[in-house]
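Shipment paperwork, digital attachment
Item: protein structure file
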Amino acid sequence: MSRRSVIGLVYMLQGITLLGVDPTPVLARYGINLETLDPAADIERDQEMAILQEVAALIDNPLAGLSIGESISTAGYGALTMLLMTCDNTLEAMQAGVQYQQLTYLHGSLHIEEEGDFVALVICPLPMQEGVRRILIDGDLSGTIKLLRELQAQLGLKILAAAAEIWIPYPRPKEYRAYEDYYQCPVRFGSAEARIRIPKFILQLPFSTANRTANLLYRRQCDALLAQRYKYDGLTGKVLAYLELLNGSYPSAETVANVMGMTGRTFRRQLSEEKTSFRQLLDRARYQKACSYLKDSSESIDQLAQQLGYSEAASFIHAFQRWSGMSPSVFRKHHSHR
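Attachment content:
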């Protein structure tokens, strides 16, 4: 099972919307509403890819990926952004990005190769259908370059990470000159992987915000995020990841089974084999979300009950007491971060 933050999908869909394409009908088929999507949730990679494949079929702009990649900003990476900003320089930040790449929104694996006076940041795309491949590769490349330059600009560096050459892993399109205009450097098509070559001296310029103590703290936070993301395996993990996406209303077992691509009977049997049930997973997802809301928000119990899919606060209070042994108000009193 492979999961990651849903924020990457949200950013991509926002970028796609700016191109005049409405992803709402596609999302509706997956029981997802962007307006009620929980930004703290994770999503299965295969589900994310299925959504993007359907949405990509609606796009007729061959250069769409370039602008979609620009929709992701440093703020969207949370603790990972702070880890990168407290590194000694851009090269060390790139190395940290490789180490914690599961927290990024890339659609491929990432590694670094040193080539004399240059360093290459290499992205090996995941296997994907041709209809979405070019868009996602372009999005990964443009988004990565934007991230590098945005990170350096925020830290006040005078020389930004200008690429000396870019390799793109698909045949040269008829719009190839637009890529050289966009990246302002030579672009080579038809390579085995995406590659961004940057002069090493630029990447070794020191960050004014370098802080070893803070860097270790943010590394621990990133480690904790990874540990939480891979806590559950099998169908149990997939169902929990899906339920974490939702706010306001929750689907039936049959609806979730359909999203998972199986019959209701097979769905229930597989969960039983994993020693759980849909009701137990729904309760677990609601409880975890309720604890988070009670700790980190000041919304009323009535408002929280609605966000968790309860028609009245009394039902939520009863359920929370069953889960935790205390009322929501008592829990908030003991655990509030505010």
